[in-house]
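Hi F.,

I've been meaning to write this up properly since the lab meeting, where we talked about keeping a consistent format for the predictions we share between groups. The idea is simple: the sequence comes first, exactly as it goes in, then the structure tokens exactly as they come out, then a line or two of notes. No screenshots and no reformatting. I'm using this chain as the first example so we have something concrete to point to.
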Amino acid sequence: MRVPIILALTLVSALAAQEVRHPRVEALVQSVDAKRLQATVAKLVSFGTRNTLSDTASDTRGIGASRKWLAAEFDALESGSGSRLQPFEDRFTAEPGPRIPKAVEIVNLGVVLPGTDPARMKDAIVLTGHYDSRASDVLDATSDAPGAVDDGSGTAMALELARVLAAERPAVSIYFVAVAGEEQGLVGSSHLAKRLKSEGVRVLAMVSVDIAGNTEGQDGVKDNVHGRLWSEGVVASETPEQRKLRLALGTENDGGAREWARYVKRVAERYVENLDLLVMLRRDRIARGSDHMSFASEGIPAICLREMHEHYDRQHQDVRTVAGRSYGDDLAHFDAAYAAKLAKGLAATFWELSHAPAPPGDVTLGGAVSPDTRLRWTLPVDPRIVGIRLYRRRADGVVWQRVQSFPKFDRLVLKDVPPDNEVFAVATVDAQGNESLAVAPSRLE
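Output, unedited:
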């Protein structure tokens, strides 16, 4: 294969190179319904508490009642006109632990939109929101714990995106799952991540939507434009050999989760006006976490989508008023329009990645002690690949600053581009412009 040598690069910005919007995706994005999100969160709040340890027999209160209602909602989506959704349930018994005083049944439930590419039947993308809630005491299974934003918002988005994408025919499968046991130590998502891995499901990317519906922060800021994408830079499962290569390549800011966060930012902002997603250079907030960490622990690119400004009086708090100060995660502070904006971004992102060709493998960087950068990679056997996109940014940058499209090559030489000063990643693209995740070098020439 002829090696293209770029003598004079005419590089365009990433935004300019990707302004084309698919009409189908535009229609799906616009179909996200804020009123449906509001109704879902209101119903979840009506169960009083959804603590994982709460009542399972009642039809009106507790985790059992909310579970039955969610199951019925997912069932209705499966039977909808044109729907391709299939049922999914992950039921198991969690053994006693620090936040589980006695064995308890955990049920993760949702739907799967099956992929259509026979060569990629085991590839998937996963979206979760946790439907359990908590009061001040995580073991308090009886007090009210409305859980409107934490995490009625994420659960509502899982339902809504399943509805919006129900009739689509993606290349790879998409899981929309409401998980339980998050407040008890991520036990539901941990079991789910391990189960999918044991079944041979190759999760390309995962998003936990958790606390993503409030626009009034405790810092006094009101913000319905920004959101945060939390992602690890160095994979939790890194081996000593991988660490050695990472240090040599300087890719601590370019793990799979970080590239996934950048992908979500690019696609979501392309389709949704007045949306600015920040790629946060941390796995999650200080001393806190969510269900994406369970997937990250299995070596899966996983991120968490959160609102920009949190209000801590409305998280993990008994519902009460003290000296005129109100506490509790109630429905009044859920902003459905803002949640819909975030959900629209995810709808576009999940559509594009699920329709994109397989990503390149074994990306190799060469050119040390040289004025030129050399890149090569292995192209997967995917007939839909028609080209390559090369992403670049200065080594002091956070998000990609430039991108250039090329025909279907497996290597490039960038003349007069010293590799010390820039960071690179390579993605595949199909004839419609659907793009794989960008892959940073993992080998050194």
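Notes:
Residues 208 and 304 are 5 Å apart (CA to CA).
The first helix runs from residue 14 to 17.

If this format works for you, I'll send the rest the same way.

G.
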